Amino acid sequence: MIHYRKILELQDEGISLRGISASTGNSRQKVTEILTIAKKKGLECPLEEEMTDQWIEEFLYPEKTLEGSGRQPLNFDHIHKELAKPNVTLSLLHYEYESECRSNHRIPYSYRSFVRHYSKYANKHKATLRIRRKPGEIMEVDWAGSTSSIIDRDTGESIKAYIFVATLPCSQISYAEATLSMDLSSWITAHNRAYEYFGGSTQIVVPDNLKASVTKHTTSELVLNPTYREMADYYSTVVMPARVRAPKDKPSVEGAVGIISTWIIGALRNERCFSLDELNKEVWKKLEEFNYRPFTRKEGCRMSAFEEEEKFALSPLPSMPYKMSQWKTAKVRPDYHISTESMFYSVPYEYINQQVELKVSDDLVEIFFNHMRVASHKRLYGKFGQLSTVRDHMPDNHRLYMDQTPDAAIEWAEGIGPATLKVVQYIMDTTSVEKQAIQSIFSLKKSERRYTKYEIERACKMITSMTKRPTVKSVQALLKSNKKSDAEQELKRNIEISETNYGFTRGASYYGGKDK
Question: In the chain, fewer beta carbons within 10 Å around the N or the C end?
Fold first, then answer.
C-alpha cells in the first residue's frame, strides 16, 4: 500500500519531491501524480482521522479497486449524467453496461455491485445521489408547524405568521415565505414565488392533504382542489399528494421544515417586525444563509448543488405567473343570469335552470357547462346588483324589446337618410307617450324587409314635401303606392323595349298583295 496520507502531509510541510520520494520509497513520478490528482480533486491538509490510506486511494483512484477484479471498469461521470435524464434508471444503465461488457469480452458487475459502487462514488464526489431523486423531478411543499409573528403598530398585538416551505429533494435547496393565513390564496401565491425563486417548475408537486390542495383523498379516489389543479396545469406539473398520515412520502420537506424552524423561525425569535413585508425580508435573509451553509460531509452547499446539478433540469416558467381563480357552482335563474357575490352575469337562455360552474378571477368571470365554456364576462365591482348582459344570450323577443330604444331609432334613421331622420324626429317630438312613438317607428323599420333604403328615403322625402305632419301610416301607404307605380312603369318600359326590338310587320306587298 502506498503511503498516500504521508505523501500529502510531507508536501504540506514543504518537503521537496526528492525528500518525499526518499521518505516514502516511491518514485518522484508517482509522488507527482498523487499530488496532482489530490490537488485536482480538492484533497488538502489538514486531513481528517477517517482519511486513511485506503480511503485516500479509493478517493483518488475509484476505478483501481474495480479493475483489480478483472471486470469492466465503470464510468461514474457518465452514469451520473445519464441518471439526470428523464426515464433513465440504474437498471437501464446496468443493462447497457452489461451489453457493452459482453461485446468487449469483459466480466460485468452484478446489478447489486453496480449500484453499490455508484452510491459510494456519488456520496464522495457529488452533492446529490440520483438513486433517490432525479434533478427537477419533485418539489415537496408544506406549512411549518411553528409560527412566527408580526406586531400590530396600532394595538401592539402579536399577529401569527405562518411559514410556507418548498424543497427540491435532489439538491435539498429550500424556499420559505411568511403569510398571514393558510388559505387558498396564500397557498397559491407562495407556490408562484417558490417557482420564481427556483427559476423553473418541477415535473411533480407533493403537498400534504390540506383543504387548499386536496378535496378528497382515499385509496380509491383523489379529488384535487380545482384551483390548485388549474395552477398545476398552468405550470405543466402533476400534483401527487402524500398519503394520509404518511410523512415518509415527503421526507425532504419534513426535514427542511424542522431545520427551517430552527434556522429561520428560531433565529428570528427576537426580531420585531411590524409588517409582513418586513418579516419576509428577514426570512429571506435567513433563507440565503441556510441555502449557502456548507454541507458537513460533502463539498459545496445546497445552492451550489442546485446550480450545478438540478437547475438545468427544471421546466421553463410561463411569461406571467399563474393568476389565481376560484371555482364555484350556481344555478341559472329564469332571467338567464347567474349570481355571484351579489353581481349578475348572463348565460345563453338555453341553459335556464341548469347547474353551471364558475371560474372567478380578479378581472374575469367564466361560466362552464359540462366542462365547456358557454359565457365570459368582465368582472363587476362596486355597487351590488349590477348586471352584465350579452345581447346574444337573450331570446329573440327579449332582444327585439331591448333594441327598441330612442337611441336605436335615431341611429336607424340616420343610416337611411336625412328625410327619414326628419320624419322619425317629428314622430318622437309630437307623440306624448315615448313607448308608443318607439313602437310606431319600429313598425316603419320593419319595412326594410320589403323595401330598400332608397325607397324608404324617397317616400319620407315625398311625404315631408306634401305635409308638415307626417305619420308612419302615410309613409307606409306611399311606399306601397310607389312600389305599384314603379312596377307599372317597369312593365311599360319592358313592353316598349320589346316592341322596339321585335315589333316589325311584313306588308301585303311582301306577299303579292296591295297595301291599303
Answer: C
pTM: 0.55
Task: Choose the final residue of a domain: 367, 395, 423.
Answer: 395
Domain termination site, one of 395, 421, 452: 395
Q: Domain count for the chain, please give it.
A: 4
Whether 226 maps to a domain, the answer reads: yes
Residues 10 and 12: their CA atoms lie apart, in Å, by: 5
> What CATH number has the domain bearing residue 155?
3.30.420.10
Do 346 and 295 lie in one domain? The reply is no
- Helix, coil or strand: residue 195: helix
One domain for residues 177 and 259: yes
Whether residue 266 sits in one domain with residue 159: yes
Q: If you write DSSP's letter for every residue of 437-486 in order, what string do you get?
A: HHHHHHHHHGGGGTS-HHHHHHHHHHHHHH-SS--HHHHHHHHHHHHHHH
Closest CA to 90 of 62, 113, 72: 113
Range of 353's domain?
Answer: 326-395
List CB contacts of 449: < 8 A, sequence separation 6 or more.
Answer: none
Compute the average pLDDT of residues 424-445.
82
Integer Cα distance of 323 and 362 in angstroms = 8
**Around Cβ 7, how many Cβ atoms within 10 Å?**
24
Does an H or E element contain 53, and which? helix 53-60
Q: What is the mean pLDDT of residues 306-324?
A: 89
The pLDDT value given to residue 245: 62
